[in-house]
Amino acid sequence: MPPPKGSSRKNRSTPVAGGCTSDGTRHLARVSESTPSPLPDLPPPPASLLVGAALFLDFDGTLAPIADTPDGVIVDNDLLAMLARLRDGLEGRLAIVSGRSITTLRDLGFADFLLAGTHGLEFAGPGEDVEAPPRRPAVDDAEAAFHAFADGKPGVLVERKSISVGLHFRGAPQWGVDAGELASELAARLGLAVQPGKMLFELRPGGADKGSAVHTLMTRMPMAGGRPLFIGDDVTDEEGFAAAAQLGGAGILVGPPRETLAAFSLEQVAAVRHYLQRGLSGRAE
Ligand SMILES: O=P(O)(O)OC[C@H]1O[C@H](O[C@H]2O[C@H](CO)[C@@H](O)[C@H](O)[C@H]2O)[C@H](O)[C@@H](O)[C@@H]1O
After folding, report:
1. Taking the model in full, what pTM does it have?
2. Which domains does the chain have, with CATH numbers?
3. Which of 63, 77, 181, 261 has the fewest other C-beta atoms within 10 Å?
């Protein structure tokens, strides 16, 4: 079932640029001549949207609640079992699309799933070698600079990833602005892209995002032929929502109302799991 026409908030105003807020999130700036009105709630997605879907699932904040640290997330066996049943019911058309590296996603328990990691830079199916660009020396330079910044700042964490590096400040939000400035300066100097996240700035090679990951996977089996449905919570998921809509599907925003390209919303991780479980049970509305 296609999303209701005009239900995506992109029609309410004109997104013109991405900017960073001090908590590390990015917002879509709006062109408006009047005072912006409060954002209305988007409708919940009908369960029938899952029928024939090619399902793209973000991980942090979508399948697992946000934790204090990257290592603090928990993936329970019930979630993995439910996703495996959903994947099988969709004839394989389920992919995890995350900012995490594929190595980390596999360590977290997703080894049997189709994966797109590092914001669309890495791909792998179950048991396959990871398709990814090599780690650049510039990323090591950025990591060293991040460590120098984090040194002596309790709560600031450096996350070493396969081909990127993250600077987290969830435990010390007062350093968010400085962390963002450092990330921007390093990106310009080292030829890397800044990826803002939730209380996080990452530096990574450019040239891909979650939208390009959707476009790539939709040309390949088993995702090809399904109707893309992208579920995510973060600003980094907006490109995934856009790609899904372009290809005749839709996005589902997880979390409170915000400017978004999604057509539907679910309020939190528990609601995502309930929605997927309901689709699995065949309880279409
Ligand atoms: O695309 P995602 O699957 O949502 O991954 C995005 C980033 O998620 C992780 O950081 C976020 O979650 C942490 C654990 O809940 C939290 O402590 C942190 O503040 C969040 O930014 C992960 O550590 C990153 O590598 C991912 O890129």
Report:
1. 0.88
2. 47-121+208-282 (3.40.50.1000), 137-205 (3.30.70.1020)
3. 77
